[in-house]
Design a protein that fits this description.
It is a single chain. The protein is an alpha/beta fold. The chain has one domain: Orthogonal Bundle (Arc Repressor Mutant, subunit A). The protein is about 30% helix and about 20% strand. The chain contains 6 helices and 8 strands; from the N terminus they run βββββαβααβααβα. It starts with a strand and ends with a helix.
Amino acid sequence: MRGFGWRLEAVSLRWHPMTNPGQPSPFVRQTIETPLGGLMLVARDGRLCMAEFADCDGRIQQWLRKRTGGNRQVLSDGVLPSAVERAFNRYFDGELRALEAIDVELSGTPFQTGLWTALRTVSPGKPLAYGAFAASLGRPQAARAVGHANGANPLAIVVPCHRLVGADGALIDYGGGLWRKRWLLDHEQRHASQS
């Protein structure tokens, strides 16, 4: 039997069916403005699940299909915890480690989630080659697998996949566009000594 109740959303009171025990909470989305354009953030139970540039609709739709089976009813507009937006603002103001405080919900294969967790430890301002990162994971022959898992990262900037580069330092693929990857790396290089 489903329960019903009131839940506060932003500043308005709306009637919502309460989720059954054991059922996952709905996803809440909010778009914030950044120097790189709009960034759609999706969270559940206060944990960030997706951060993707708003103009990357194909990547957003792919994530939604994987996580919700295409059921858009589990995604509603709302307001994320204010600490999330503050962390992004601090990051863009030059406090590069601010995003490390964001609680995330990773969903992927064990290899992907392990890689994404490890990526959060890569220091800003010190990009790594895919091969060097694979070796740091104890999988020196897995540079290509690292690249694929990196490309499936649902948390742009928070899981800093932009910090992986080619063996010669060349920029290689970035879901948000190479111009954004260049901007992020330059931003981090400028502010790395402050972090």
